[in-house]
Amino acid sequence: MAERPSPKFFRLSPLDQTSLTAMANRDHTQYLKTIKLALVQYMKAYLMPGGQFRKFADNLASYTIGYTINEELSGDPNERGLQIAAYYDDMREQLPQIFIQDNGYEYKSDSLGSLAAGWNMLTRDGHQAIRVLDAIEVPIDIHLVALSIQEVEDLISFMHIAFGQSQRLTVNYYLEPESPQQGVYWVVRLPLQHSISAKTHTPLHGSARQQIWQATCSLTVNFENSVFLQYRSQPQYTSKRGDPGLTFPSTIPLGQERAVSLLNYPEPITVYSDDNRIAVVQQSRREWIVYPRRVGTFNLIVKSTKPTQSSNANILLQQSVEVRAR
User: Fold this and answer.
1) How far apart are CA 173 and CA 84, in angstroms?
2) Are the C-beta atoms of 163 and 219 separated by less than 8 Å?
3) Which DSSP symbol is given to 37?
4) Which structural domains are found in the chain, ordered by start?
5) Rg from Cα positions in the chain
6) Confidence of residue 144 (pLDDT cuts 50, 70, 90)
7) Which residues pair with 136 in a beta bridge?
8) What is the pTM of this model?
């Protein structure tokens, strides 16, 4: 049976570079900006020619055909202008409009100290990696404004397509960047539920015949920002160690590998044989394994790799071992 392919979620082209740079430093002020820019690009993917979901919208939302997004009209009578904006500074007087407004959020750490994971990178100099995670829920209001009741109803229908159960068909409820930038991994998760307000209207410039119609689509999106950091652990205080100890048999049979047992050893160290013709020592994660190669005697040496003036001063432990035939 063929394996079922995993869904390909909608991926975003590079967003505002200043926001991504600030998020690398976990600047919470950029989270809302990134969410709103992601939603703008997501809706453009339905409405602009060549967009990822344009063909889907042609079949299920034919009323969106002919929109020119955030550009001046060329004079073609089949063109219809539509603005999609995340900030008031980006809006013009031209209608219809889709305006994205956030309603703030309450910051809650997703884990103790925001540390979601950490692991030793198994380097001799003690480097470690940690994952710092922020996860927030952000209430979003998408305001739909038009000069006719039909056009505002078309925009409402588009909201049902973009943020409703149709997402199960397009599999687009994860909004992610094309690739991680500057060590930042973020994702905007769209809900499968939303609400639409009642339609309202107000006179345009005091005219009773011309009305501005509007409605609001409300939804709550989830945002996660993960930053992966590397650091070298350098504690200020360390517990007192006992004397280093080496436990290894004085004789070993040919062809049988043995692990070296060490106690209270300072890092970084290396363990080796002074005669590789008789036996070799190889490191496997946090252990050193002795591999006998021929009958004879060798010295098993434990040596600190910290630089000193004398090479002999680095030797911590030494033991003579005999390799026997059986």
Assistant:
1) 19
2) yes
3) H
4) 11-232 (no CATH), 245-324 (2.60.40.1080)
5) 32
6) very high
7) 223
8) 0.60
pLDDT tens by residue, 109-143: 655 555 555 545 445 555 666 767 778 889 999 99
What gap in Å lies between CA 163 and CA 154, rounded to an integer? 14
How far apart CA 276 and CA 310 sit, in angstroms, is 23
Choose among 91, 83, 13: nearest CA to 47.
83
CB 261 within 8 A of CB 239: no
Helix, strand or coil for residue 29?
helix
Greater pLDDT, 280 or 108: 280
Residue 187: its H or E element: strand 184-189
Structure confidence at residue 27 (pLDDT): 62
Residue 71: per-residue pLDDT? 66
In single-letter form, the type of residue at position 259 comes to A
Q: For residue 118, what is the enclosing H or E element?
A: strand 115-120
pLDDT classification of 89: cutoffs 50, 70, 90:
low
Tokens of 304: 């600190």
